[in-house]
Structure formats: structure tokens, C-alpha cells
């Protein structure tokens, strides 16, 4: 079983906010299972938007999307990425480095 994280970061806004990246969810499972959970996050994320009225989802790559959430008085954009754990010095089943 692979381990995954779903990353989310606001797009635009103040420079300090643009560099804020959060781990939204940690997952364990097959690539297919991880993708199902990842897409569920895209379909349900509200971020800082009050009274969500509309959601636009833009595909950047297989594991990277931009979600624009429209609310009653504002809209916000978020970059989502799905990342797989490929190296862990504490796990005998994974290499100690990526090289």
C-alpha cells in the first residue's frame, strides 16, 4: 500500500498567503484509491468562501488541479496536488533517498 498526501495552497491574494501550503489529508492505498479521495476533496472543498454557490475545477496535470470556489460575496482559488511518498529513512520497504 502506498502513502499519499493531498496538498492545498491558495492562489493569488497576498504574497504571504500565496506561499502557504497545507496538508489537507493523508491517505493510504492504491493509486486508484488515492485519486478517488483526491477528486472528492476537489468536489467538496470550500476554503474560506462563505455560502458556496459554484465551483470551477481546472486540470493542470493528472495530480494537480486549480479549484475556483464562488461564494455569495467572494471567490477564491486553490491549487491542489496529490503526492506519493517515495522515500523514507524509517521504512525498510522504501529507499532512503530519491536518487
Keywords:
99 residues, 5-stranded antiparallel sheet, 2 helices
What's the layout of helices and strands?
Layout lengths: L1 E10 L3 H4 L3 E8 L1 H14 L9 E8 L2 E7 L4 E10 L15
Antiparallel strand pairs: 1-2, 1-5, 3-4, 4-5
Shape category: elongated
Report how far apart the termini are: 22 Å
Order of helices and strands: EHEHEEE
Strand residue percentage: 35-45%
Q: Considering DSSP H and I runs of 4 or more, what fraction of the residues is helical?
A: 10-25%
Number of strands: 5
Average pLDDT, to the nearest integer?
91
Q: Which sequence of strands runs across the widest sheet?
A: 2-1-5-4-3
- Going by helix content, strand content and strand pairing, the class is alpha+beta
Parts with pLDDT < 50 across at least 5 consecutive residues: none
Radius of gyration: 15 Å
The number of distinct helices, counting runs of at least 4 residues, comes to: 2
How would you sum up the major sheet? 5 strands, antiparallel
Question: How would you sum up this structure, described in words?
Answer:
The chain has 99 residues and is of the alpha+beta class. Helices cover 18% and strands 43% of the residues. The longest helix is centred in the middle third of the chain and has 14 residues, at 31-44. It contains two helices and five strands.
Amino acid at each position: 500500500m502506498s502513502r499519499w498526501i493531498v496538498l492545498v495552497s491558495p492562489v493569488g491574494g497576498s504574497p504571504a498567503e500565496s506561499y502557504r501550503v497545507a496538508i489537507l489529508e493523508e491517505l493510504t492505498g492504491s493509486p486508484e484509491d488515492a485519486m478517488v479521495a483526491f477528486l472528492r476533496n476537489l468536489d467538496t472543498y470550500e476554503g474560506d468562501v462563505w455560502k458556496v454557490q459554484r465551483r470551477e475545477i481546472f486540470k493542470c496535470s493528472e495530480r494537480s488541479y486549480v479549484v475556483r470556489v464562488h461564494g455569495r460575496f467572494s471567490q477564491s482559488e486553490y491549487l491542489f496536488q496529490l503526492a506519493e511518498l517515495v522515500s523514507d529513512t524509517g521504512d525498510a520497504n522504501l529507499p532512503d533517498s530519491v536518487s
